[in-house]
């Protein structure tokens, strides 16, 4: 139990996937312009990341390891993530058109989110047990969402600020992301597994 | 070694097959029927997602039109052409629609209208307007910070050299997004017609004395135009003269009698505001000479 709690704490704050490990920078910069889209993207990521960790862990432990096929993990994980996203999209379209509309293009975009792949690979490399791997997936995706939502909040305020011409647009966004990452550096070393 | 290779092929092949089956089953179970006409309708639409039709975007409008929930003429930027194309696609009859164009109801540019203070805040008319009632002495005048420019999906509005928005008559589709974007209500979409009519280009409801202190071209509510108009097309709306375009016959009687020179024929409005500047004197003299 203690170990699960520390996994949650570590991967939300200490080892935040975006701000400390620099995974998923593309959606972090791409969809953080508006709070609404950021929340949509976050929800989709939480869902897919948890599911992906769960399925990849099972496949790895019960198919790849018994057959000595560990070297195929990247290929297998790509297959899993892509199919999973497709499956979610197809079913969501029928079950909840509202949510489907809300998530919109974010669902297919997640296929190329490297943070998902990283979670799947790290869950295996860290030799997590099944429950730990799932909790790890949830914590990592919440950490991603946290970073995305904070960034969106800051960027919405930046819209109203008088920014020097040379720094407008992506320049100030990257500076903001850097400072945010530095701020999260404060958690460093607070807790280790 | 061979076993390894076979293992790899079989395992990965099976996983792939499994996911493939799962996906095709999901596609069957969760199939959503989409009207094939919706795609065609979407292609006809301008695709600017301006929202002038009242739907969230072109896709939603396309669905509504295909279902017959709304009129094909609902797409304002597309105008008659799109409406006809839509009607053809869906086999419907449509009524003619009148194309609209946005018009700015303020000519108090940075030379004619006085400023109260230098504003260096956020480039946003709504924000600037809330600070001490805006940096312009006139509480109704255009602040020229370009909320309408940013709202226009067709890049039809620009802030001109005199600090006021200029509408590109060709590019404007009359979608009306600038009308809602202006916090001071200075824009309006008016029908494009051959009989253009005249307009009082001011929205100030202040008393005449206050207006003339703040702006040299604001309506001072003197009612001279109301008396001059032979068609009784001009009425006073709380200290502001308003011309009814349906009644106006473009006679131009109101132009020379207006002391600040606020009334213009709509034909000159589209042009650059620098041309507007000379307009009051020349129009006044030519029209006056003709009397």
Would you kindly provide a written description of the structure presented here, covering whatever features stand out?
The complex is a heterodimer of chains A (193) and B (291). Chain A contains 9 helices and no strands. The model of chain A has no long low-confidence stretch (mean pLDDT 89). Chain A has one domain (14-184). Chain A is mainly alpha-helical. Chain B is an alpha+beta fold and 291 residues long. Chain B folds into 2 domains: 37-90, 3-methyladenine DNA Glycosylase II, Chain A, domain 3, CATH 1.10.15.40; 100-290, Alpha-Beta Plaits. Chain B has 11 helices and 8 strands. In chain B, the strands form 4 sheets. Chain B has a two-stranded antiparallel ribbon with strand order 1-4. A two-stranded antiparallel sheet of chain B has the order 2-3. Chain B has a two-stranded antiparallel sheet with strand order 5-8. In chain B, β2 (157-159) and β3 (165-167) form a beta hairpin. The longest helix of chain B has 28 residues, at 2-29. The radius of gyration of chain B is 28 Å and the shape is elongated. Chain B starts with a helix and ends with a helix. The relative contact order of chain B is 0.11. The chains are: A mainly alpha (193), B alpha+beta (291). At the A-B interface, α3 and α4 of A face α1 of B.
**From the coordinates shown, what is the CATH architecture of the largest domain in chain B?**
2-Layer Sandwich
- Given the C-alpha coordinates, what overall shape of chain A results? globular
* N-C termini distance of chain B: 107 Å
Largest interface: A-B, 23 and 23 residues
Secondary-structure content class of chain A: mainly alpha
Radius of gyration of chain B: 28 Å
